[in-house]
Write a sequence for this structure.
């Protein structure tokens, strides 16, 4: 049986850092409030001349180097993002060209914070069912472009970044299962009120910002992430105690802790990076994976569960032997 396996990881965070103390000067908030309610200490902000493709290219280069692959080896590019450079062409084609990857399928997926999980799951299917040999998968976001910096409910939460992986076929396990889900009935709890076919002229203006009913999002997120993780383990016939690592979406430390508790998983087995960059949406899972791999915690052969939840709502998981 052919598995798909992550052959390399990478991440990129823009240079500019906005701390909680910086935010104290912008809105009525405090470092203490932000840290205790969210776990976030700082977030990175893309420079004015940087867009999501720039962040993606940097993360992709690191992942390609890690996997020992050159642009010519890559035969598919999939990018999860809600904040692409342009309406079209899709961001994956821009990244493909910038990296010198020869003509191949290149497309993006827009499922908010679950973008990377959807993209990785798609790569897995193309490798198993369609013979793809080397897929570049990126989760990237320049979400701070959509922030209303006068809204303390949302401006303290989000940050920019990119995470990338190279996925290849392997005889050894790899990705064991993927589960994806969505339920559009929750749209009004978390959305951005303008887009290419609706009120585009308002995008990025003071008139609109991320609309979120935080405490309701919180409740559904905890419940759904717990269910997603349990289903992934049950379907694979794996006990939660066998899990080496949980790599969750980094939205809020309290959501992460509550999910770990529902799984009866000690926090020592959970990769947490939210303090360093806030909620980077589609970028958060691949960046956390890269952190865990590079600091030596996540080792080859270990059992890893990645999961995400975001606007829509959308959600998903990938269970794998790293
Ligand atoms: N600083 C100080 N006070 C604030 C701030 C702030 N930055 N933001 C809100 N408050 C105030 C509110 O106005 C409210 O005041 P009030 O009681 O006088 O009305 C009070 O703090 C409590 O507000 P709540 O919304 O009830 O606070 P809660 O404990 O729920 O924390 C938070 C808010 C952090 C947004 C939380 O609900 C959350 O994290 N929800 C999940 C949202 C999320 O992660 N969204 C991202 C996308 S989805 C995803 O990635 C999972």
């Amino acid at each position: 049986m052919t598995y798909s396996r992550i052959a390399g990881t990478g991440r990129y965070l823009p240079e500019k850092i906005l701390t909680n103390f910086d935010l104290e000067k912008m809105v009525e908030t405090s470092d203490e409030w932000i840290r205790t309610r969210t776990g976030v200490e700082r977030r990175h902000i893309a420079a004015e001349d940087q867009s999501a493709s720039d962040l993606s290219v940097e993360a992709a280069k690191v992942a390609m180097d890690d996997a020992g692959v050159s642009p010519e080896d890559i035969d598919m590019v999939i990018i999860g993002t809600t904040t692409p450079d342009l309406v079209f062409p899709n961001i994956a084609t821009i990244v493909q060209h910038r990296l010198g990857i020869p003509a191949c399928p290149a497309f993006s997926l827009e499922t908010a914070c679950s973008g990377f999980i959807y993209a990785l799951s798609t790569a897995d299917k193309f490798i198993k069912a369609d013979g793809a040999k080397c897929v570049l998968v990126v989760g990237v976001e320049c979400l701070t472009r959509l922030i209303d910096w006068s809204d303390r409910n949302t401006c303290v939460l989000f940050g920019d970044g990119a995470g990338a992986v190279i996925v290849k076929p392997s005889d050894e396990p790899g990705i064991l299962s993927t589960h994806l889900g969505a339920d559009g009935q929750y749209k009004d709890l978390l959305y951005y009120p303008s887009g290419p076919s609706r009120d585009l002229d308002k995008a990025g203006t003071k008139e609109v910002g991320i609309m979120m009913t935080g405490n309701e999002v919180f409740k559904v997120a905890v419940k759904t992430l717990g269910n997603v993780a349990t289903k992934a383990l049950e379907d694979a016939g794996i006990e939660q105690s066998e899990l080496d690592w949980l790599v969750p979406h980094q939205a809020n430390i309290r959501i992460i802790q509550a999910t770990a508790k529902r799984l009866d998983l000690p926090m020592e087995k959970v990769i947490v990076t939210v303090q360093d960059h806030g909620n980077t949406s589609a970028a958060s899972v691949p960046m956390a994976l890269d952190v865990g791999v590079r600091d030596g915690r996540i080792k080859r052969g270990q059992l890893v569960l990645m999961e995400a939840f975001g606007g829509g709502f959308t959600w998903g998981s990938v269970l794998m032997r790293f």
Q: What stands out?
A: The mean pLDDT is 96. The CA atoms of residues 194 and 201 lie 8 Å apart. The first strand starts at residue 3 and ends at 12. Residues 29, 33-34, 37-38, 113, 152-153, 156-157, 190, 212, 214-215, 217-218, 221, 249, 251-252, 279, 309-310 surround acetyl coenzyme *A (CB under 6 Å).
